[in-house]
Amino acid sequence: MALLEEGELRPTAERIAERAGVSLRALWTNFKDMEGLFAAAGERLMQRQRAEWRPIPTELPLPERIERYCAQRARLLELIAPAARAARIREPFSAQLRKNRAWYLQIVREEIETLFAPELAAAGPGRGEVLDALMVAATFAGWSMWRDQLHLDVPAATAVLRLVVSALLPAPVPA
Question: In total, how many domains does the chain have?
Answer without folding.
Answer: 2
